[in-house]
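## Example pair
The file below holds two records. Each record gives the amino-acid sequence first, followed by its structure token line.
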Amino acid sequence: MQQNEKKVLLKISNLKQYFPVKKRGMYVKANDGITLDIYEGETLGLVGESGCGKSTFGRTILQLYRQTDGRTMYYGSSLDELAPKYVRDTYNRLPRLLSKQKKLHEKYLSLKAAYDAADEKEQMHLHTEMDQTRKADNDSYLNIVNLVGGFITVDDLGPCMALFKQRYSACKKLHDHIEARRPIKRDLDEAEFQASKEDAKPKFAAQVQKLSAKLQNCDQVIEADRAALKDIDRQLDELRSKYRQDPEFMKHEALRDDGIDLARLTYPECRLLRCQMQYIFQDPYSSLNPRMTIGQIISEGLIAHKYFKPNQERMQDEVLKVMNECGLADYFVHRFPHQFSGGQRQRICIARSLAVRPKFVVCDEAVSALDVSIQSQILNLLRDLKESSNLTYLFITHDLSVVKYISDRIGVMYLGNMVELASSESLFRHPYHPYTEALLNSIPTTEEKKDLIVLEGDIPSPVNPPKGCKFHTRCKYCTEICESVVPDWEEVEPNHFVACHHKLGVNQG
């Protein structure tokens, strides 16, 4: 299946993650404008030297670090059912936001006019500011148009704003009632489990009946919420019908988006989605609490996300189930982390992440601390779990042989930027970026004719990175344009993207 035929799970645009340092006004630019899509059911590998920002990128996607700038759209959950606060704020401040976006767009057009009128040398100096303004303009525009669509062009905002506010209120009620339903369903499942035992059936029969009635009532309320939401959507469609002949309206309408922008969520809202997006840490030794048993470690997420109450017997069955899926014996459940080998500890870390049945998992150097023989076992386990549970992975590593084995696509990072992105087969067959070429040439091999080539020079400081292409200080193909102009992110062949002025085999100079 082609990439454009797959469902996008995460759409990341111009993601930036800056960390302040002691000197006022200076930042570590760990991620500096990353744009890519992650498709449902794929394994996206991420490679690069230590310090290039791979782990920061993985943690920022999950909002363990709140991103400094950019957009991270998540399509694994319903925007209506989450009803995030930023939607309400956009509707309430719509006129003001539109005025601010208009000024930003005018600034970009002014810079572009100056750029077009300048000579080649002046264009090199104007390019970066123009590009940054363009990105800021685009982000501001999308934050609005994704929610209001073609109504961004309407002069009289009153009728649509009234309906949008009603719509948010309906979504908020739906969200609150869905959240209220979860503990009722949890308690009913537990009561039914206890009632299934012959000796406890009379004791729990009345509780099952009471909770069933409560759940049914809750479902009816949720159904009424959905009907109210559907009615408001019908009114919005009637309002849109007045503008369907306007091509400008329809152009913006096509950009309406039901994805959730993770970067704009509050901390409690992020926690509601945390069970859908999990993290496997690099070190299986320090990432496990030495004072907790394996059963407690794996069940911690199940309790935190209200799948079970503490010490429920039914939870024990779920813990043992996920342990078996990850190749852990039942009798391990009461043992402590120090009683296990590195490979077994990593299986425990995997079981802990998968216990809440996530859709997306960041595997951060998940096998780098293990022996080579154990690495293959963990990699095969991850592949099997991906197939059986329909998981999507972001697999972070510095080992190209590992990433080639497990990944469908591979992204190459350098000093906070994505420099190349392609299918695993395409990247190894024909790297277009000099940095990717250098990484591939540094892989040890048994071939007699191939010499091991080590990339010379150190990675520049992410606090004060080089202007233009960040790799130009170590690139043997560097020319004047590389020193001052940031290369554009371009598709050089189907689904193969690269950011370089001198693409290998294309316009190498």
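Second record, same layout:
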Amino acid sequence: MEDLHAVLDAAGSERTFLLGSHDGCSLAALYAATYPGRVRGLALFHPAAHQHHVWEQADELEQMLADLREGWGTQEFCDAMLEEICPTLLEREGDRLWFANAIRVGASPAVAVALNRAWAETDIRDLLPAVRVPTLVLCRPGFTEEYSREVAELIPGASLLRVTGTDYWGIFLSPEIPEEVESFAAGEAPPEVPDTVLATLLFTDIVGSTERAAELGDRAWRELLERHHMLVRREVGRFRGEERDTAGDGFFATFDGPARAIRCAQAVVEGLRGLDLDVRAGVHTGECELHDGKVAELAVSIGARVAAAAGSGEVLVSQTVKDLVAGTGLSLEDRGERELKGVPGTWRLYAATEAAD
């Protein structure tokens, strides 16, 4: 998403129409929800909000990834892929050879495994309602059509259009798509920039601050708090977050990416140990309203409650965050379901541990 942001800036594009295909749909939808002022509309070809319907058992996914690593780029493996996702290209030897070459030059086996793992573990169902730009969902008839329908139902006002063909893969095999996308984009009135955005919220506070203040005395405690504030602000800035509020010994910051919010929280926890301070942190991603630079909505309350549930030196994240950071190398341990004060239902939380190698 940051790469996309940089490319649009470099091209001088203030507002664009995004076209996503397959796993690229998740990126396009997330970008539109996070930066609604930069997106005129979306076209999504064969999107899927999640892959849980495919990989219900973890061992099935691991076996698929092992097979992928071993066979990646070989003609036999690529022919088997085409038989499943695009039988049309199996009919001509030239197409088969082209596809195998594209697979080989497109990614190494290790990269292919990492990308497919991220694709399998990502879940954006909770975030699609935050997409508030005109959206056209394109799909071909078949068993994967239900995945596209689910996405269209979750995005407010989205339209669903069937295109020619029966293959799951190969957007270029439906030659009418450029015309359909152009017609959709031309027929949509420029949307008003919504006053809501998708944001990742980070909350931190010092554990046992009252006891520590009494132990040190007012002057020493104020000096320690100043050093605490300096360190937290340094890390928030380093990870490109935005400070939203500071109350006593607590911080509230927002980020446009959940992985950076988690890494910022980990850096804060580690850095404050050098000041002999223990903090807890919570991270949640959700739709937020903006009022004069202030962030409001239920997501803020959830983020604060997630932080309150954390133990000393712990960084807790919500299920929504966990579903968005697949493939980033972050290690998350299941901490079970919790009731969050003032928030309906139960919430499954995860503890962010050291990043994976």
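Notes on the second record: The domain at 2-50+122-187 is CATH 3.40.50.1820 (Rossmann fold). The two ends are 22 Å apart (CA to CA).
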